[in-house]
Amino acid sequence: MTNIQNNFAAGLLAAILLASTAAYAGESADAIKQRIGNGDPAAGMTGSQLCQGCHGEVGLSVEDLIPNLAGQYADYIAKQLRNFQSGARTHQIMSAMSKTISDAELIDIAAYYASQNKMQGNGKGDNPVGKNLFLNGDAGRNIPPCMSCHGVNGKGQAPNIATYPVIGGQHKAYLRAQLQHWRSGERSNSPDGVMNKVAKTLTDAEIEALTDYLSGL
To answer: Is residue 44 domain-resident?
Structure first.
């Protein structure tokens, strides 16, 4: 194929990805473009071959401790990869894998996963303790409502702000592990340590209830 043909094919693939996602999820094309950012989903689909081995072809992993990436904000995915590269966040596999890709590749991979339909839970989301914490927080312990940052259904609040990821429909085991890591300080890469402050006040039972609720959204 000529360069012109390659560019046309890549552009067509990106358009198809965008259109099919919008049609399925009921989102506007502009909203999805904002979520995807400046990366090239078509290039990211090719560049994410190794990622797909763990995170799934469209960002839905089969291992509960490996996060879903489908529909996650590109800025958030990119930030986490850069944090693994810098050591601000550590994981035996991700720390090594992230260092094998350039920043341009990283942006395209993030765009590819962001272009997918947002992760969905099992539809239960009916844990009353978890639901109350998510929607109302606990003013007495200075716990803000999770929805104030992550959106009323856990599907994110602001596509262009890497601080607020999609968490509704994420694997329960992964959410539980991350909250435990935030609480212990093993993970500390949230701006101003906000997640460490919130998680430190949560009991094991509350973490279990909250992740049960979130994973069902």
So the answer is: yes
